[in-house]
Structure formats: structure tokens, C-alpha cells
Amino acid sequence: MALQGFSQTTVELVNPPALATPKGYSHAAVIDLGTAKMIIMSGQVGLDKQGTLIGKDDLEKQTEQVFRNIKSIVEANGGTMENIVKLGYFITDVSKISVVRSVRDQFINTQHPPASTLVEVSKLFRDDVMIEIEATAVIPVK
Fold this sequence. Notes:
Protein name: RidA family protein
CATH superfamily of the domain at 43-134: RutC-like
Oligomer: single chain
Organism: Chitinophaga oryziterrae
GO molecular function, one term: deaminase activity
Order of helices and strands: EEEHEHEE
Structural class: alpha+beta
Pfam family, one: Ribonuc_L-PSP
CATH architecture of the domain at 43-134: 2-Layer Sandwich
Strand order of the largest sheet: 1-2-3-6-4-5
InterPro entries: RutC-like_sf (IPR035959), YjgF/YER057c/UK114 (IPR006175)
């Protein structure tokens, strides 16, 4: 698919094998920008490859799985977590953001953290899911 104004830009919708197969959406859109590729990731939750929620009633464990999923998507596209430029957090209890930040700091460059948005929500798509995180990465083409 070509995007208006970008004659050679292509978009590929992907589902890395390390993640559960999604129903009705793709885990990521990979956009070829010529000198780099942008990876726009769907919101990730604490589901493992089999679709099992990791960390029922445990925000820390759910957040760890979310970041493992994001890392899998980035690495499947030739990047590292250093390539993350934006994170969007949707959390059911913002008073527990310190737990999320503690886990996040194990995965991102804390000296140069990505742009971020935090939104408290009353509910996510399942009652037992406590956090969902969207991410965008820009990976230089080698």
C-alpha cells in the first residue's frame, strides 16, 4: 500500500510468532520510511504466546509480560528497545504507576526515555487485565 506523499512507502501488517495470534487485528504495522522503518504496535496486554494472562491480580507481572511482548515485536523487526520512541499507557489504577515505572525501567533507556502518555481507564477489554501499553519504534535501516 502506498501512502499519499510517500511514493515508495509501504506498510506491512505483522504478527510475530512469539505472540499469541490476534483476532481481528495485527500486532504491528511496519512502515518503510527508506532510511528507517517505523513500527506502530497495537496495545499489548499481559498475554503470553498461548494467550494466557500472566499475573492475574498482579500489575507487576502483567507489565513485565507487556514489555516482553513489545520487545518481541521490536526484535522481530530488527530493532532493540533503544528504538522505542513513544509509549502509551492505559491503566486501571493510576495510583500504582510506580510499579509500572519500575518494570519499564528494566526495558527502556532511562537516560533518554521515550515520549509517553498515561491514561487511567475504568476497564480494559477483560476484567482481569490491569494494563495495556501501545508503543512506537523507529528502527534505522542498516
